Amino acid sequence: MITEIVTGGRIGEQYTRIEHPSGLVLMLCPMQGFSGAYAMFAARCGSIDDSFRVKADEPFTIVPAGIAHFLEHKLFESEEGDAFEQYAKTGANANAYTSFDRTAYLFGCTDRFEESLEILLNLVTHPYFTPQTVEKEQGIIGQEIRMYDDSPDWRVFFNLLCALYHNHPLHTDIAGTVESIREITADLLYTCHGAFYNLNNMVLAVAGNFEIDAVVRACDKILKPADPVTVETKPVGEPPTVVQRRIEQTLEVAAPLFEIGFKGVPGSYRENLLAQVTGEIVGDLLVGESSPLYHELYEAGLINSTFDSEVLAGPNYLACLFSGESHDPDAVFERILAGARRLQEVGIAPEDFERARRAVYGRYIGIYGGIESTAGLLMLAKLADFNAYALLDAIAQLTLNDAQAFLRENFDPERAALSVIRGEDAS
Amino acid sequence: MTTVIRRKQLAEGVGFSVLRDPKFKINRLSVNFVVPLSEETASDHAMLSLLLRKGCRSCPDFIDLNRKLDWLYGASLATDVLKLGANQIITFSIATIDDRFTLGGERLVRESAALLRSLLLEPLIEAGAFAEAGFEIERQFLIDTIEAEINDKRAWAAAECARLMGRGDPASLRKYGSLEGARKTTPRSAAAAWRTMIDAARIEIFFTGSGDPGAAEEVFSDAFAPRAACGYLPPRIVPRAEAVQEKTDRLEIVQSKLVFGFRTGERPVLAEQSAIRLATAILGGTPSSKLFLNVREKRSLCYYCAARYNRTNAVMMIDSGVEHRNVGAAREAILRELEDLRRGDFDDDTMESTRLQMVNALRSVSDSAGAIEDWYLTRVLLGEASDPQQEIKALQRTGREEIVAAAQQITLDTVYLLTAKEGGAAK
To answer: Are A254 and B147 inside 8 Å of each other by CB?
Structure first.
């Protein structure tokens, strides 16, 4: 068992990274003074992983959209019954989620940590699927998909991804479609589990009130060593261009919603996640609350306080997104594009850069202050292979030139799109 | 770890509470103005939460204000409007990283407290009115916010059910006031509301974090004059429903929302509240509850189906997301689960596990600065001295008989259905 202690000088914290004999990497951060512990067991398996192989000479297996999310739902059920019922006995608060690039199973508790951890390790490593249980889940997930069909925030986001990406599976709903999930079978679920849920490809991250020995004990007891499996996902072949400049849908909303995206140039998983910080700084400089452009849009009544920005980063994608409500989304789009062109021409002022950097630094300190956010960061650090304290160092060491380069590469007005959701009477 | 509250009066009607805990990486200072909720003033108060956030005499420019926040390591300046019983609470807060983590040894508590004080006490009011131009933008935002409540169909349906149950009680007014109220506010009426709020509202200030509250206390020591402020105003409590009122609204939506509102009797004593809370949680408060397991998981009738209890008005609400064709079956199944609960049809394991989950949630309160502040603000206003530990003890003392007795006092008052337009997208 290889144990390494990783220290973060800036915040005086440390975590322990253990390579367990089973192949699983443990990222453990006991935190003084907290009542609760928070554990996440995660696989690098998300909605974008719809085509993969485990042997280089085999053809790629193509799986139906939404299978990662379906698998997440199904692992919550074992031969002994529903996992929620098992967790109920320990009082833990359990959940799971699937995103574009990962699936995470998690629980929080203030008592009986080791028992809950055993439940977690068991449920994720003991798949149990039958045609009957798969069919029943198709009903439940079908309803979940319908619920999101009514959600304007969700639709404006996915419509934007459809406008930005030609071939990338990002544009498919994480849960799939009512049609695609009908094609999911027990056999396909076992195939996915065998590849992505190999312990060598996973991570267990724990933060808060717990003992490292307890985690190792539970892993020793439950995890069987597994031969490493290398999963190769099919390259997406995504061109740098956008599909369409504008996309619109009608739904029951009061004021029109919009989301604007700049399609970035992705690097490796690690590079993209670290670049997220630079993206936030540059996004703030372009149209953050301290920028003249934000003020101009606000004073003109084109945006309001719901205006928000986000950097979407994962294994093979990087995009900068801006969303909000507006009575004239097209005008917001035009002005943000013009603002990006202008900033590229005149360059970022050194003082502005320092200020934005300091604000983002303060925001990231907060991540290390909670058990959920710490566990989440440790999980990502393993999946994308970076030091969990590297984010703070990345911010402290970032230069003006890095920000300028990011701005040039990832805020190209030619590779931007606008998504709009309008109410019926407004259209 | 229990965080201890220390509260003193800065002046009659002005409290200053400290929740100090070295585990937090931030310091958060909040000023809460507690006023009666009324149709006449609710919108003006909501406007103040927007207007005061935009600038003050020493920092009139919104860009400058935001730049100042950036230099304070991305201090988060937030305002919020809450409702507790028949009170409206207008909250202004500023949170910064603790001084230990600043890159250049800057001290942030005093500077951020002084900024918050200026924003509250030196608003941009000239000759008894806010400036016309900025006012109009914020008023439009308030109108948009109220109209946008319909975007979240689940929350909207639950709020509509609560409104129907209130039958005109001021406590059932919306926290931001009505659309008509928002349209009626003027730069002059908001300025008058500011004067009254500063001079007469009950004020509760909270410092939560790891740093030294001394500087913040000093800054606010002479900020507010003594006042004979009104305290907490309870809502009208209706112990029993007389007849069931029903209402159906139709919109272009894919999934119906079915909401039930129940009366639960009167229970001023903590032990009695524990009984109805446990009853609610066993019915639909956890993923191992009757509604979740039987109605959602076993019968796939709902995507979500949950019960919650509001202690201030003694109302229990069940809300569910249902396919249109399943509305009748879901209604019947949900009410049958309640009948089973009233007959005591739940096993001891379920009761114990539900209790454990609730204890777990209560213990976790002290792990988040926001949660611990919410807890104590509510307790201070209700005039209760209880900490989470006392509530845990009360839960642990509550037995089966008390839970069943509480469940038997539940009576159905209102059924609200939000569904598709007739001949519309029925599925």
So the answer is: yes
Q: What is the CATH number of domain B5-220?
A: 3.30.830.10
Place of tokens 């045609």: A131
Instruction: Give the model's confidence band at B272: pLDDT under 50 very low, under 70 low, under 90 confident, else very high.
Output: confident
A vs B: CB pairs below 8 A:
192
> Distance from first CA to last CA of chain A, Å, rounded?
63
Question: Which element (helix H / strand E) includes A406?
Answer: helix A400-410
Q: Give pTM, 2 decimals.
A: 0.90
Q: Which residue has the higher pLDDT, A16 or A392?
A: A16
Same CATH topology for B5-220 and B245-420: the answer is yes
Query: With pLDDT > 90 as the criterion, what percentage of chain B qualifies?
Result: 80
- CA A371 to chain B, closest CA, distance in angstroms equals 8
Question: Which of B:310-369 have CB within 8 Å of A?
Answer: 321, 323, 349-350, 353-354, 356-357, 359-361, 363-364, 366-368
* A353, closest residue in chain B (CA to CA): B70
CATH superfamily label, A246-422: Metalloenzyme, LuxS/M16 peptidase-like (3.30.830.10)
Q: Where in chain A is the domain with CATH 3.30.830.10?
A: 2-233, 246-422
| Segment 146-165 of chain A within 8 Å of chain B by CB | 146-147, 149-150, 152-153
Residue B1 has pLDDT above 60, yes or no: no
**CATH number assigned to the domain with residue range A2-233, chosen from the 4 options 3.40.605.10, 2.30.130.10, 3.30.830.10, 3.40.630.30:** 3.30.830.10
For B245-420, CATH gives: 3.30.830.10
Q: In which element (H, E) is residue A313 found? A: strand A308-314
Give me the DSSP letters along A97-128.
EE-SS-EEEEEEESS-HHHHHHHHHHHHH---
Is A72 a residue of the active site?
yes
Sign of torsion, CA B46 A153 B426 B260? Answer: negative
Nearest neighbour of B101 by CB, restricted to A305, A365, A370: A365
Predicted confidence (pLDDT) per residue in B178-233, tens digit: 999 999 999 999 999 999 999 999 999 999 999 999 999 999 999 999 999 778 99
Using CB atoms, pick whichever of B149, B300, B349 lies closest to residue A136. B300
Where do the structural domains in chain B lie, given as residue ranges? 5-220, 245-420
| Interchain proximity B1–A299, CB inside 8 Å | no
Q: Which residue of B has its CA nearest to A289?
A: B66
- Confidence class of residue A81 from pLDDT cuts 50, 70 and 90? confident
* pLDDT at residue B385, as a whole number: 76
Report, as an integer, the average pLDDT of A46-51: 95
pLDDT, one tens digit per residue, over A186-201 is 999 999 999 999 999 9
Question: Is A290 in contact with B253 (Cβ distance < 8 A)?
Answer: no
Residue A150 in this model has a pLDDT that exceeds 90: no
Three-class DSSP labels, chain B: CCCCEEEEEEECCEEEEEEECCCCCEEEEEEEEEEECCCCCHHHHHHHHHHHHHCECCECCHHHHHHHHHHCCCCEEEEEEEEECCEEEEEEEEEEECHHHCCCCCCCHHHHHHHHHHHHHCCCEECCEECHHHHHHHHHHHHHHHHHHHHCHHHHHHHHHHHHHHCCCHHHCCCCCCHHHHHHCCHHHHHHHHHHHHHHCEEEEEEEECCCCHHHHHHHCCCCCCCCCCCCCCCCCCCCCCCCEEEEEEECCCCEEEEEEEECCCCCCHHHHHHHHHHHHHHHCCCCCHHHHHHHHHCCCEEEEEEEEECCCCEEEEEEEECHHHHHHHHHHHHHHHHHHHCCCCCHHHHHHHHHHHHHHHHHHHHCHHHHHHHHHHHHHHCCCCCHHHHHHHHHHCCHHHHHHHHHCCEEEEEEEEEECCCCCCC
